[in-house]
Amino acid sequence: MSxxxxxxxxxxxxxxxxxLGALPCVGQQDDFDSLLRQAVLDSETRLGFILVVPDxxxxxxxxRFDPVEGLCTKEAVPFLIHVLLxxxxxxxxxxxxxxGGMYPHxxxxxxxxxxxxxxxxxxxxxxxxxxxxxxxxxxxxTITNPEKKDHDIRSYAAIALGLLGDQRxxxxxxxxxxxxxxxxIAYSLAxxxxxxxxxxxxxxxxxxxxxxxxxxxxxxxxxxGTRVQFEFDRNYRCTDPMFPELGWMSKAEVYKRHWQYxxxxxxxxxxxxxxxxxxxxxxxxxxxSLLQKxxxxxxxxxxxxxxxxxxxxxxxxxxxxxxxxxxxxxxxxALTRSMVNNWWNRNKHKWSELVVGGLNxxxxxxx
Length: 367
Description:
By secondary structure, the protein is an all-alpha fold.
């Protein structure tokens, strides 16, 4: 009995250590702590607490981040998780009270971003925990700097989950959309690329401050694969080239109206209007220029492609590969019919939720 108990405890300990990975030695911990201190001090002097690179209009939208050398390795993950959840183990008054007590909090924000950038699966649960319940650790640290409200740890956890790239983060992020005005949640959902995020972003994202509507629009462009060039006049009114029937709109309302109209079935209608006339021409010639026009409606037209796959066979595979191949297969691997069918069976329910009332109510078969 004793031998069994000892072997069980040994197995449990080995399993736990495998989960943690290699534990840093005391020397490594000191090195990590020293690097983190310097990163925090540098972030104040150079970036004023902004720890991420501005977006600059790139796709996917959202901030970029590169950890300092030495805090970008998997060996640093246990240390960074500890800092994220419990704060740094600093005792020096200058590190606890400097900048109105912000240094320990900025250390936690920095640790979150490092964990996302390292892309280690051990970071997933701590980051989700922080996204859902993160606070300022008021029982341990005193922050008097009024700027703390601009640096909610949950925002950094949201950014980090997008950087981490773990698809399990989609549901926790969607869950937070109606609870916060945090555009970083939408950024990370766009980066993760799951179309199930489109309806909740349309529903809740445009309840945020209107100054964020353009960023919400860019997240939706990324998720749907569309790009819309609104046309503005000298009075900052604009028209929607995809839906000209909406007429002239103010700049403040155009993004919200476009996506609500898109979701009400008109995005699917537009996609079919582009697909149907070009498909026969593309089928005969297989020209890339025609393929681009045929897929102008982008992701919402996927059910039409599946109907063609069933009815006409593998000739439609290049179109499916162009549209969603990156979600189905590894890079540089040929797409097969069985790959597509297996993927579609797991994901087709998401397309039924893309428009109000579902695609079937608009006449789509195959769902």
